[in-house]
Amino acid sequence: MTKKKTAKADIDFEKELWDAANELRGAVSENNYKNYILPLVFLKHLSERFDIVHDELQDILNEPSSEYYTTDKAEKEYVLADPDEYRARNTFVIPKTASWQYLKDNAEQDDIKVKVDDAFDVIQELLTTYNPQLVNLLPRIFVKSELSAKQTGGIINLLSHPKFSEKENPESDILGRIYEYYIGRFAMAEGSGAGQFFTPGSIVRLLVELLEPYKGRIFDPACGSGGMFVQSLKFIREHGGDKSDISIYGQEMTAQTLRLCLMNLLLRNLSFDIKLGNSLLDDKFPELKADFVIANPPFNVSNWHPEDLPENDPRLFGPREEFTTDGSANYMWMQTFWNHLSDIGTAGIVMANGAMTSNTRGEKNVRQHMVDNGMIDAIVRLPDKLFLTTGIPACLFILSKNRDGKDGEHRERMKEILFLDAAKMGSMASRKLRVFSDEDISKIADTYHNWRIDPSVTSSLSIPRKTGSVEKPYEDIDGFCKAAILEEVQKQDYKLTPGIYVGTEAEEDDGIPFEEKMEDLKATLVEQFEKGEELKKQILANFEKL
Q: How large is the angle between the packed helices 14-24 and 33-61, nearest 10 degrees?
């Protein structure tokens, strides 16, 4: 079992980001703050990556035991400037005038805006040459902005803080966390519901531990800033896997957010194909069958125009008029995810709680179809305040095509659904934000794996699991988990709320008789009434003195 770690908030540099926002105030609209901060942080990370690799090359060139060792000065200079050496180590040769140190050294200059945009041009050329999909990742935005040179220099100085350094924080999704902060802090400027589009680290880590995407094709048709992909890579690293065994596919409908996703993936040297477009109405990957679909689609989107779908859309479970509704796109997302799963694929989806019980025909028909046809593997109810940017209660839907037990790893479970109620789990990292500890995530993920594993099969997983013992036989736990048969769900009118099935947690008897407890409660209440009367008299006396 992993040790319980202290819960950490997904963001720990609010003050610095707020200071950066203040530098932008008045010259840039609030909903555009992130579009100036994030490209600079990306440039900073590329520059840091170059510095690190440059130092590594210098070390091996001077190390007698290294195959790179040489005393020839010209040969050293050649290697230290060879672009292929840097590309082999997932970075680029960054010219001095495009380096973070150069921008920092010139932060007080009157032409710093020009220097920033020129640096963007240099790096953009490197990126486009490397991968044409990265075109327009760093457009010239500072010169034509209303920012003053002093404001621009101030931002550069603020972002030079170690908290924004990938070198200092190698495991953090810094770009994603900055994105979340600005979307959350200025949600009103973004528009209603903007915060739904960023998935907090707690939920992403839980989804990845549930799905274990260690090999194959990973697809996110609402990929946002790429947080699901970043966490999938971290999972692979922690379990000793090889990132070359996965391929990333994603679709995002907002160009600015797509740029952020591409930045995130580029920094991690992942194989990816990310496209711009509306996944509901313009699926850019119609033939893709993924081994894992991991997604947090925007919740409860209305007026999404299902009438624009073709009548024979292959994603639909039935007639368009009966399996869609303009009131919510939630279950169109479900059908999209299912359509993109391979024959043994599994999908993990963040969804609004309302999807578990909605009676709208276009939604309930889909839910009923999914239950009756054995598509739903598990439902996880999440606690409140996991999202920093939206208060909408959420849950996880786990859909799977390997429920027939023919994949050699898992037992047949077509007639069951696992319900998990995690509503009381997690701890408050701040007044507004709840997070899951590693122990919380292990408990939920291990329960799911214990339930679906075939105990008669010796696991052939190429990557050992780091969570608790998956060999422990699954057991229902009152108030937490219940493996319900489909007939139970059908009798509950296809409602999927875990609380209906798991019941309430058994309370320990403290041994104190009920009558004694009532006497103590009565005495406490009388005492509080007396204190209240005294306080009332004191307040009235103070008024008399005025």
A: 120
Do the beta carbons of residue 389 and residue 195 sit within 8 Å? Answer: yes
Report how far residue 55's alpha carbon sits from residue 5's, in angstroms, rounded to the nearest whole number: 33
Type of residue at 74: A
Cα 309 to Cα 175, 221, 476, distances in angstroms: 35, 17, 42
DSSP code of 425?
A: -
Read out DSSP for 352-380?
EGGGGT---HHHHHHHHHHHHTT-EEEEE
Tens of pLDDT along the chain (546 residues) come to 344 444 444 446 677 777 887 888 888 877 778 888 888 988 998 999 899 999 999 999 999 999 999 999 999 999 999 999 998 888 899 999 999 999 999 999 999 999 999 999 999 999 999 888 888 899 999 999 999 999 999 999 988 988 788 777 665 667 666 766 666 565 434 443 433 445 767 888 899 999 998 889 999 999 987 878 877 887 887 777 888 888 999 999 988 888 888 888 887 777 889 999 999 999 999 999 999 999 989 888 899 999 999 988 999 999 999 999 999 999 999 999 999 999 999 999 999 999 999 999 899 999 999 999 999 999 999 998 887 666 678 899 999 999 998 888 899 999 999 999 999 999 887 777 788 899 999 999 999 999 998 776 644 444 444 444 446 789 999 999 999 999 999 999 999 999 999 987 544 444 455 555 576 677 777 777 777 777 777 777 777 766
CA-to-CA separations, 161 to 99, 158, 295, in angstroms, rounded: 16, 6, 32
Q: How would you class 303 by CB atoms within 10 Å of its CB: exposed for 0-12, middle for 13-18, buried for 19 or more?
A: exposed
The alpha helices in 239-329, defined as continuous H runs, are 255-267, 320-323
How long a stretch of residues is the chain? 546
Residues 6+ apart with CB under 8 A from 4: 437, 438, 439
Is the domain defined by 14-188 classed in CATH 1.20.1260.30?
yes
Separation of alpha carbons 299 and 482, rounded Å: 26
Q: Give the full edge-to-edge strand order of the sheet including 290-295.
A: 272-276, 246-252, 216-220, 290-295, 341-352, 394-400, 376-381, 416-421, 481-485
Do residues 432 and 388 touch, judged by C-beta distance below 8 A? Answer: yes
What single-letter DSSP state applies at residue 428? E
Rounded CA separation 183/372 (Å): 39
Q: For the domain 198-502, what is the CATH superfamily, name and number?
A: Vaccinia Virus protein VP39 (3.40.50.150)
Taking each helix axis as running N to C, give the angle between helix 14-24 and helix 149-159, from 0 to 180 degrees, rounded to the nearest 10: 170
Q: Give the bridge partners for 351, in sequence order.
A: 395
